[in-house]
Design goal:
Layout lengths: L1 H14 L1 H7 L3 E2 H4 L6 H8 L4 E10 H6 L6 E2 L2 E4 L5 E4 L4 E12 L1 E2 L3 H11 L5 H12 L3 E9 L5 E8 L10
Parallel strand pairs: 1-7
Antiparallel strand pairs: 2-6, 3-9, 4-5, 6-8, 8-9
């Protein structure tokens, strides 16, 4: 009985590779907006901003971390403390302006690959029948994304969020 379970688990592992490999394609969103990226760095990776807004009041970075509805990913870094424990260091800067960027391409989400593998393992590979076509349609063409990036007073990126959106192109004839 135990041998059958092991064989079934190994077979499920073999069946869950296609969608994970497909979802691993594209730019990782953390590389598009790295910690401490300057305004000019983001022009190189994301292009010119669509719009830049000066914030009426500075927003502390800790506000971004505690508000899950906003779905922000704060750029921070891991370090090793004095006692050998790893800890996450959140920047203490305050956001003073935000910019909107339109990025067209395939962007790999933070958990796309892991979610595909875990769903496949939970369903013993049967989910691959649905995940592989869905992954192919998502990654087959470049998709428009809207990045909202918050900058501190030194114009360093301290937080961002990404949304997949549908942009409507306006023509001069309208």
């Amino acid at each position: 009985m135990a041998a059958r379970i092991v064989v079934l688990a190994l077979a499920a592992n073999c069946l869950c590779g296609c969608s994970a490999l497909i979802l691993a394609s594209g730019e990782n969103e953390r590389y598009l907006v790295p910690q401490g990226a300057t305004y000019s760095d983001l022009i190189k990776t994301l292009g010119e901003p669509l719009k830049i807004e000066e914030l009426s009041q500075p927003i502390p970075v800790t506000k971004f971390r505690i508000d899950p509805a906003v779905k922000l990913q704060v750029t921070g870094k891991w370090s090793v403390g004095e006692n050998g424990q790893s800890k996450y260091e959140v920047p203490t800067n305050q956001a003073t302006e935000k910019a909107y960027y339109r990025y067209i391409g395939t962007v790999q989400g933070e958990h796309d690959v892991g979610e595909a593998v875990s769903v496949n393992l939970m369903t013993f590979g049967l989910a691959e029948l649905f995940l592989a076509p869905a992954a192919m349609s998502e990654r087959s063409s470049d998709q428009p994304h809207l990045f909202t990036v918050w900058f501190d007073q030194d114009r360093l990126a301290i937080a961002y969020k990404r949304e997949r959106v549908r942009f409507v192109e306006s023509s001069a004839d309208e």
